[in-house]
Write a structure and sequence with these properties.
Radius of gyration: 22 Å
Low-confidence stretches: none
Helix content: 25-40%
Shape: globular
Structural class: alpha+beta
Number of helices: 12
Length: 383
């Protein structure tokens, strides 16, 4: 197996202390948003054999196993991260496979460079993802029922929000959510900035359920995404709880640290809370205008002590072991590739000792076991 050296991405929304605290190092004073573990070409993990993407490219069937290559192709199908949000991320959605393929082929045909700021599709893959909280973790996930969203907006007492309140109360669910999101994102930016400023002042004053949106407005004053965010459920995860985010579900992460795993894709359509490009027509093609409670996931324990976060897709499978410090050794040998990540204590993985924030890549079929005292996350695929 390979001990991994991983890249930390310094996005502006990152916490200045959380990742350093986990790793037990001095903070740099700069935002540290995500630590990537995997073979994504944007920031592949490094091993003693070379960058992990190059190691896999040299012999995919040995590193990933025949079943993984036959099902997903010669690349690691997932990307594992530790995400540390000190400020809100953009409200966003991800496409399904067909939408991603169509969007990618269209932008390729139109000759839009992959690094163009207005490019939506970096690849032809979908991007389902799972976030598991390591600390109390705040996020937005999925549409509220239109009547509930209308009540929240109406409670601000802002006259310019009344048309949206009326739409939410008068239309069927799909039409109401679609029309209001469209109206918010296509409104005159100057007028919308005034509405957001009034709404933010009211939210600051009222607090309670309005507090997350007041905080978002402090980071993104005048951004229409503040109103779009109020159409979504606010969720607070306890450590160990998770959210699965499928295609078309609008969401944003607001604050906290978690383990995130996703299909190996960069495809994001943004709704707001961002200075980046917002492609409203394409966004509306991808969003699923369906209200529903966000499903908070808790791990399901198996007899061998592995706690699995069940999801409906095969590109990734995330589980964890909470090890008590006995001499018990859990056999992790598998026919699929694995990334193992320690988040607490000291864990022995094969011949390696992992402490918080440290990780290892285990090629398919390599015999390995885990023991020690701490928490270990296990990322692999269903093949």
């Amino acid at each position: 197996m390979d001990r991994l050296t991983n890249t930390i991405r310094p996005y502006a929304w990152g916490s200045t202390t959380a990742l350093a605290g986990l790793l037990g190092v001095e903070p740099t004073g700069e935002p540290e948003a995500e630590m990537w573990m995997g073979a994504h070409p944007g920031a592949p993990s490094r091993t003693e054999r070379g960058p992990l993407d190059e190691v896999i490219d040299e012999d995919p069937r040995r590193e990933l196993g025949p079943r993984t290559v036959d099902k997903f192709g010669p690349r690691l199908p997932f990307l594992l991260k530790i995400l540390a949000a000190g400020a809100p991320l953009s409200v966003q959605v991800h496409p399904n496979r067909e939408q991603a393929r169509e969007g990618y082929e269209d932008e390729e045909a139109r000759g839009i460079p992959l690094d163009a700021p207005h490019r939506n599709y970096k690849d032809a893959n979908h991007k389902p993802e799972l976030i598991c909280a390591l600390t109390p973790f705040d996020g937005l996930c999925g549409f509220r029922a239109p009547a509930e969203a209308a009540g929240l907006l109406d409670g601000l007492g802002v006259d310019s929000l009344k048309p949206y309140v009326d739409l939410l109360r008068a239309q069927p669910e799909d039409a109401a959510l679609r029309e209001v999101l469209t109206a918010v994102l296509t409104a005159d930016r100057g007028e919308m900035a005034k509405t957001v400023a009034e709404a933010a002042a009211a939210a600051e004053r009222l607090g309670g359920p309005y507090a997350p949106y007041a905080d978002a407005a402090r980071h993104f004053p005048g951004d229409p995404g503040v109103i779009a965010a109020m159409l979504l459920h606010h969720v607070r995860l306890k450590p160990g709880e998770a959210l699965y985010l499928g295609a078309g579900v609008p969401h944003a992460y607001l604050n906290g640290m978690g383990v995130e795993i996703m299909a190996n894709s960069d495809n994001v359509l943004r709704c707001g809370l961002t200075p980046k490009h917002v492609d409203v027509p394409e966004l509306l093609r991808v969003v699923r205008f369906e209200a529903g409670e966000p499903g908070v996931l808790r791990p399901e324990a198996s007899p061998d002590g592995e706690e699995v976060y069940e999801t409906p897709i095969d590109e990734f499978r995330l589980s964890r072991f909470v090890l008590p410090g006995s001499d018990t050794r859990h056999d992790l040998t598998a026919e699929t590739p694995q990334i193992l990540l320690c988040t607490a204590g000291t864990v022995r993985v094969g011949d390696l000792s992992l402490t918080p924030g440290r990780s290892a890549f285990v090629p398919a079929g390599e015999k390995t076991g885990v023991s020690g005292s701490g928490t270990l996350f296990r990322a692999t695929v269903v093949a």
